[in-house]
Write a structure and sequence with these properties.
single chain, mainly alpha, 87% helix, globular
Length: 499
């Protein structure tokens, strides 16, 4: 096995590990979403989503982005094999997290009447937001433990913590929704975050880390680098969450009645979950290991080009068959995931999914900005991209409703790819080898062909052509991946390790 194959296999190993976890998590989320859809309907989903989005917004405002900046610092310390440096970085993180938790909980409780007014147009949900502050506490604690596991590249522990937290959380919350319906929303959110914390804490305690005593003052002083990068990342996340929040508020207020508004918010949220969780499984699976790897080589442009190229190729080859299958069976998939009540999001989802092939590449390139700690560019792009997304989503919904939002996502992903491509070329001297564009162009053609076939009214012709495109996309992805990693040998190696 040559070095190139070994490098591609590392990418696929992390993807297969977290891809498997993500598949199970998606099944769990499917069960949860299906239960919510049937038990509390689009209105209940709208309420749940507004509460969660608000919590995420406060979390993004107060957590200083430590769950991401700490990954970079811990991975760098770990690369140098300096156990004392690793222990000190982790101790700094733990001290800082308690400061951010205190700020977040106090802010959420203090603002609860106004948060209720903004989200729902009245103060009826003030008590709900006060209770949700408990979920915020557990969320920040679990995020810090996940950052430690990710920074140290303890991928097995990270995968188990994610998986077990989601399974146990689901088993506890489903009966709550069954017996208490809408009244179960707040307890379910708290329990889900608590179970996530329990398992992340359990696996982080398995790590052998030196004990380093450090005061809060020292943590703030010596953690300035982590805080500065974290604030940059936090600001970006907050902007993203704020835009998502504004879009939901706009959708809720743009309808004639509050009930219709909540229904559309629930429908939009369901479509958004499909695009970012179900179809976005590749990004979630790859990102866990990709960011630490990229952080370690951020100053070596040769290695950077190679790593980003490998990540982008694996991403588009894996996601293309997923996109094609979703385009072929979107109406059926949405009914299976939710219910017939959610059929209005079919066109929104199909347009949005079409843009994912462009997102796969821009996502791979965009991590360079974070890995290099280029705060100025990162903040400017975060503000610019989110402003474009907000404008497109608002215009899309204003003119074409949910379908317009789907189309706006498609256009946005193309623009995002083009701009990131320009930035990384001129600022970091990054470019892809010519062979990449051959693969990328063909996968784009496959996705466009599948989308075009969905417009055919004759079901026999439509599904015959769609089956052909599905087989073609799967065959093409398999052959290209086989060239990179020798799939049969790769699978034999996995079976030997398991035995």
């Amino acid at each position: 096995m040559n070095d190139n194959q070994q490098s591609y296999r590392k990418v696929l190993n992390a993807t297969s590990l977290f891809g498997g976890v993500q598949v199970i998590n998606i099944i769990l989320r499917l069960i949860r979403s299906k239960a919510i859809a049937l038990l509390i309907g689009p209105i209940g989903m709208g309420i749940s989503n507004l509460l969660l989005t608000t919590m995420e917004l406060i979390n993004g405002l107060t957590n200083l982005g430590l769950e991401r900046s700490a990954v970079k610092d811990i991975s760098l310390a770990n690369t140098n094999s300096n156990s004392k440096s690793v222990a000190k970085t982790i101790s700094i993180l733990k001290k800082l997290v308690w400061l951010t938790i205190t700020l977040g909980v106090i802010l959420m409780i203090a603002l609860s009447p106004w948060l209720s007014e903004i989200a729902f147009g009245n103060k009826d949900y003030t008590i709900s937001f006060i209770w949700i502050s408990i979920a915020l506490l557990f969320k920040q604690l679990s995020s810090s433990q996940l950052a430690i596991l990710q920074g140290l590249r303890k991928l097995q522990y990270l995968a188990k913590a994610n998986l077990l937290g989601n399974i146990i959380g689901l088993l506890i919350t489903l009966p709550l929704y069954y017996f208490f319906r809408i009244d179960a929303i707040v307890p379910a959110i708290i329990i889900a975050t608590f179970m996530s914390f329990v398992f992340t804490y359990y696996y982080s305690q398995k790590l052998v880390i030196e004990h380093v005593t450090i005061s809060r003052k020292e943590a703030v002083s010596e953690g300035k680098g982590m805080i500065n990068l974290g604030i940059m990342l936090s600001l970006s996340s907050m902007i993203t969450l704020l835009v998502a929040y504004i879009i939901r508020i706009y959708i809720g207020s743009a309808n004639e009645t509050e009930e219709l508004g909540l229904i559309d918010v629930g429908l939009y949220s369901a479509g958004f979950v499909i695009l970012n969780s179900y179809v976005g499984i590749i990004f979630n699976a790859m990102g866990t290991d990709y960011f630490p790897r990229l952080s370690e080589i951020a100053n070596d442009i040769i290695k950077l080009r190679k790593t980003v190229l490998e990540q982008a190729i694996v991403a588009i080859l894996l996601i293309t068959p997923i996109i094609v299958v979703f385009l072929a069976f979107a109406p059926l998939i949405i009914v299976i995931l939710y219910s017939n009540e959610f059929s209005p999001i079919v066109t929104m989802v199909t347009w949005g999914i079409l843009g994912m092939i462009f997102k796969a590449v821009s996502w791979s390139m965009g991590y360079m900005i974070i890995a290099k700690g280029d705060s100025k560019v990162f903040i400017k792009t975060a503000i610019g991209f989110n402003a474009i997304l907000l404008l497109f989503n608002v215009l899309g919904y204003h003119y074409e409703g949910l379908e317009g939002i789907g189309f706006s996502f498609f256009i946005y992903y193309i623009i995002h790819y083009i701009i990131i491509r320009i930035i990384t070329y001129y600022r970091y001297d990054f470019y892809f080898e010519k062979g990449f564009y051959k693969i990328f162009t063909f996968t784009v053609i496959l996705c466009l062909a599948a989308f075009s076939i969905t417009m055919i009214s004759n079901p026999i012709i439509k599904y015959s052509l769609m089956v052909f495109v599905i087989l073609l996309s799967c065959t093409y992805s398999y052959r290209e991946l086989d060239k990179k990693i020798a799939i049969k040998e790769y699978l034999k190696g996995i079976l030997k390790r398991k035995k």
